[in-house]
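To the wet lab folks,

You asked to see what we're planning to order before we commit. Fair enough. Below is the target structure as tokens, and below that is the sequence we designed to fit it. If anything looks off to you, flag it before the synthesis order goes out.
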């Protein structure tokens, strides 16, 4: 019988084993498995983003309605986090990762078979709930199982995997839609999801350092512990504002590239290559935060997002794409460091780390659902300038929050 999370953490003489250090086989396997899980989750989550104009034509829906293909999934994911976060604090991390990937990959196979718009939205909503497994526990697992000297880098790699997954889903979908339509594009992402699910099953080491929250502790009490800390609340607000602005930019960008600039979907999807910059920005920001201070790196990264938004107002296609790339770098740099703040703050106050991390992700994806949908309305109302006004306001709010959070001693020392 395979060891469970609880069995794997026990060692002779009691106590917990040391976290896996750099160079150890288990640390490499854990980092690679979580990286691949991130690729799968975010490829499946955001696969429709490059296909939004195609979906409007295929199902006869408006641009605003087409964004629901993404928003229902991120909303389902956000709701799933409220359950899976506290559940992981009781039952362990790895089983939730495996189950979530299996179910979401199976639903990914159903997406290209959708006979109607309503069926597609239902499948995407259920898939979002299943995809919550990884965001609910990924950071907590790496913090627990890896030595503190390498956990920050591993989390940065995890965020980088998220970026590459988002790129893969959007880029592969955009390139294949001109070959065989949106169904062919979604089928290719389903194959990728199944392959990564199998790889994670073979690679991910069981937990050795997981300590379950006592079963007698009510879930509502755990939740209250994670929402009564004003610093954690500030971090959750930061997550919502950053992700809402970021998704709004990319949702509306697909319509601008195919509309005013007249690009076919296959060429318009190349803008998502900016995610390659984001995959490198996250670990780089983590390294800079370790060398200097997160209270400097995070607000500077948010300011970079704002500069990129301003650049997208230029009429030139080249400057528009460059601005989107700058926004991407700033977003992943800020998110990569801020996501580590949650576990640090929760552990410092003796709060369940899984619950705190899942709430961060809940607000992160709630921001995605709201920002992504509102972006469609802004585009219909006033084109790209209205989108920049919306996203710029959210980015400015995020900048204010980072400056306030930077004054918190425990986060500044992370």
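Sequence we intend to order:
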């Amino acid at each position: 019988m395979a060891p469970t999370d609880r069995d794997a953490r026990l060692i002779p003489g009691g106590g917990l084993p040391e976290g896996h250090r750099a160079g150890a086989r288990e640390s490499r396997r854990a980092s690679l498995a979580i990286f691949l899980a991130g690729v799968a989750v975010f490829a499946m989550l955001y696969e429709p983003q490059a296909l939004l104009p195609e979906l409007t034509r295929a199902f006869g829906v408006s641009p605003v309605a087409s964004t629901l293909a993404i928003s229902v999934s991120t909303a389902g994911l956000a709701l799933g986090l409220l359950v899976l976060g506290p559940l992981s604090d009781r039952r362990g991390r790895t089983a939730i990762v495996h189950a979530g990937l299996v179910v979401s990959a199976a639903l990914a196979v159903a997406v290209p078979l959708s006979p109607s718009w309503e069926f597609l939205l239902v499948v995407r909503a259920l898939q979002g709930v299943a995809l919550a497994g990884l965001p609910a526990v990924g950071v907590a697992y790496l913090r627990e199982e890896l030595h503190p000297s390498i956990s920050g880098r591993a989390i940065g790699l995890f965020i980088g995997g998220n970026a590459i997954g988002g790129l893969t889903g959007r880029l592969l979908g955009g390139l294949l839609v001109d070959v065989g339509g949106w169904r062919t594009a979604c089928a290719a992402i389903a194959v990728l999801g199944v392959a990564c699910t199998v790889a994670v099953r073979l690679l991910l080491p069981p937990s050795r350092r997981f300590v379950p929250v006592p079963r007698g502790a009510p879930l509502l009490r755990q939740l209250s512990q994670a929402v009564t800390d004003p610093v954690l609340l500030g971090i959750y607000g930061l997550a919502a504002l950053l992700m809402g602005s970021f998704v709004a930019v990319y949702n509306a960008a697909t319509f601008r590239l195919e509309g005013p600039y007249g690009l076919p979907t296959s060429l318009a999807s190349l803008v998502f290559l900016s995610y390659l910059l984001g995959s490198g920005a996250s670990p780089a920001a983590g390294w800079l935060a370790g060398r200097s201070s997160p209270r400097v790196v995070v607000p500077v990264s948010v300011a970079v997002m704002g500069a990129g938004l301003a650049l997208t107002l230029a009429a030139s296609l080249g400057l528009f794409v460059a601005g989107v790339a700058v926004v991407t770098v700033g977003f992943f740099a800020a998110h990569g460091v801020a996501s580590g703040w949650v576990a640090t703050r929760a552990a410092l106050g003796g709060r369940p780390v899984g619950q705190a991390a899942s709430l961060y992700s809940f607000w992160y994806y709630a921001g995605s659902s709201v920002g992504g949908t509102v972006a469609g309305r802004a585009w219909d109302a006033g084109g790209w300038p209205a989108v920049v006004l919306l996203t710029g306001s959210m980015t400015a709010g995020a900048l204010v929050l980072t400056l306030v959070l930077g004054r918190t001693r425990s986060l500044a020392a992370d």
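Structural context that might help your review: Residues 189 and 230 are 40 Å apart (CA to CA). Residues 1-14 have pLDDT under 50 and may be disordered.

Thanks,
Computational group
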